[in-house]
Amino acid sequence: MTDVRVVVPGDIIDTSISAEDGGEETTVLRLGPGLAQAGEEISASAAGVLHNKEETHQWWVVSNRRRYVAAEGEPVVGVVVGRHGEGYRVDIGSAQDALLPLLAFEGATRRNKPNLTIGAVVYARVVVANSVMDPEIECYNSNTGKSEGYGELTGGFMFKCSLGLARHLISAKAPVLNALGTQIPFETAVGVNGRVWINTESPETTVLVVNAIKNSEYLTAKQCRQMVKELLDKQ
Amino acid sequence: MTRPDRREATQIRALHCALGQLSRVDGSAQFSLGDTSVLCGVYGPVDVKIYDEKIDRAHIEVKFRPDIGVPTTKDKWTESAVRQTFEQLILAQLHPRTLVQINIQVRQADGAVDAAAINAATMALVDAAIPLHSMVAAATCAVLESGEIVVDPNQEEADQARSIHTLAFENKTTEGPAYVDSRGDFTMDEYNRCYDLCATSAERVLAFMRSAIESKISKEAKLSTT
């Protein structure tokens, strides 16, 4: 059950609950991104579409941005930029580089662990993310011990996009991926940090797929399919 | 007395803004008041120099470049004033040990440059989705030799004015303005009249900013659901 409206920073949000819910009880509101609380007043801190889930009293603002702020549990694509004794330093686009422990891979032991070079691309899961510490990532799901698709991404090409487009691609609702998938075999890894990795059979095909995805951000589904068709015909 | 461009005394010039035109920054906006045009690019939250690092909040930095020539002391003053304004408005506690950098470039100057700079910075911060307490819009008033007060003076009017007042107001009810800059010889009565005129103009600018942002967001929101 969503109730959408566009808000800008400074707008006061009326989160009062209707009396039928039992007006005397105190209800706990869950404020998501884009909302700030000052005493009793809740206001928007970002411009975007306001969403509200009545059953769980959740409120949040969906806004597009380019700069990633790490949050726990999110899948990200990063580039290894350094190595310490304890782990790798990975650039995931956040203000501070993330730490990837040497053993944070499926089945890794002291004797048997992957050796990543500087410049290697990894698909990882954010483990620790808060405003006071540097983010930490892992290339497997430490809860299950399985890689679940995380790990080093070899070959291919990585490009940057806005966070909104990345979320759209990862939700598998993006028409551009379907339109491309029916014509071209390709592998992709999408990070919610606005980085997308593509691997195809040849550099020309990779460039085509990358361009198609970049172009698709502000197109409708029909326009997407048309755009992909035009790119393929030109090839 | 007719103004050079035949505007009414309380009439601001044509407003124009464009969001997100720069591809390499985190947020950008171009804001114009008539022929005065200012471009602002924002980075943040990004990595900060150890020297500037603050353990409990983001470090805010403003860089202001004039349209012609190298930055002078006057521009440094504008940097400092704009920084103090946005330090109050940006929710910096959400991103400790980071940097938010606001880069302002004047493209064309024809009076009320500081006001246009503040407006451009507000819109660029919104475009970058930097958490803000509220939005802020600025307006300028000039008190002419005759005692008449005109809103949003162009450079010709500003050169002949006895005093110039730039004030910025938030879109939330607050006790006072977010930014005040008054130069020249003036009486308290003249200042009070300028205050009221600027407040009204700032409201108009805020409404314009809101409609620009709303139209951009609702267009994008429609696309993502098709």
From TrEMBL, chain A:
The residue ranges of the Exosome complex exonuclease Rrp40 N-terminal domain are 29-67
**Which Pfam families does this entry report, sorted A to Z?**
KH_6, Rrp40_N, RRP40_S1
Location in the cell: Cytoplasm; Nucleus, Nucleolus
Q: Identify the residues that the record assigns to the K Homology domain, covering every copy.
A: 156-203
Q: What is its main location?
A: cytoplasm
Q: GO CC terms on record? A: cytoplasmic exosome (RNase complex); nuclear exosome (RNase complex); nucleolus
UniProt keywords, alphabetically: Cytoplasm, Exosome, Nucleus, RNA-binding, rRNA processing
- Sorted alphabetically, which SUPFAM superfamilies does this protein's record hold? Eukaryotic type KH-domain (KH-domain type I), Nucleic acid-binding proteins, Ribosomal L27 protein-like
State which residue ranges cross the membrane.
Answer: none
Q: Does the keyword Zinc apply?
A: no
Question: CDD domains from the entry?
Answer: KH-I_Rrp40
What GO annotations for molecular function exist for this entry?
RNA binding
Might you name a Gene Ontology BP term for this protein?
TRAMP-dependent tRNA surveillance pathway
User: Which family, according to the similarity comment?
Assistant: Belongs to the RRP40 family.
Protein's name in the database: Ribosomal RNA-processing protein 40
TrEMBL record, chain B:
Ranges for domain Exoribonuclease phosphorolytic: 11-131, 135-196
Q: Which UniProt keywords apply?
A: Exosome, Nucleus, rRNA processing
Any one GO cellular component localisation term in the record: cytoplasmic exosome (RNase complex)
The superkingdom listed in its UniProt entry is: Eukaryota
The record, for CDD domains, names: RNase_PH_RRP46
Instruction: Please report which protein family the annotation says this sequence is part of.
Output: Belongs to the RNase PH family.
Report what the protein is called: Exosome non-catalytic core subunit rrp46
